[in-house]
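check this:
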Amino acid sequence: MNKRADTSVSLHPLIADRWSPRAFDNNALIPGEDLAAIFEAARWAPSAFNAQPWKFIVGLRGDENFNSITSVLVPFNQEWASRASALILTNVIGFREDGTVNQTAMYDTGLAVSLMTVEANHRGYDVHQMSGFDHAAAKSKFPLGAGIDPVTCIAIGKRTSPDSLSEEIKAREVAPRSRKPLDEIVNITW
C-alpha cells in the first residue's frame, strides 16, 4: 500500500512517498549494515555548535531493549509496534558540556531523526514516530543520567498489508493523508 503525498509542487520521491505506516512485517529483520547506515545519517545531522544532543537506545525484535521499549508504549502503540523490526527510544540531551541549557537540543534531535527517516526510507524501510509512551517509565528503564530525557519512540520495519491490523488501527492506516495548506504554515507570497 502506497500513500504518496498530494503535494502542491513536485518533491523528491523519498519525501513524497514517506508516511508512517503501522502495518509491519513481523518476519522482517534489519541487517546490521542498514541499521548502522540509519544511525550514521543521524550522526551527520546538523546541530548547533556540533553538540549532537541526542542519544538513541535501540531494540531489535525479541531482544531485551525491544521488550523494554515495547513495555513503555501506550497499549494502542504496543499492539502494532511490537511487529516492527526495531524500536528506538530517542533521547535529548538538554544541556551543553559547560552545563548551560541547550536551547536547540529538541530541534537538533528532530533533524537527526529526520535524516534517519530519510536513510531508512532510502533503504526500503518504513518509520513511524510515536509520542504515545510513558516517559517516566522509559527514563526509569533506561537511566541515562541527568539532563537526558526521552522524547519519542520510533518503529522501523518493512511495510505489510493493513489487513494484519485490528479494525481500529486498520482504519487509521488506510485513511487518506492530509496536511495543512502551505498558506497556513508559511508567511510568504509566491
Notes: The CA atoms of residues 87 and 175 lie 24 Å apart.
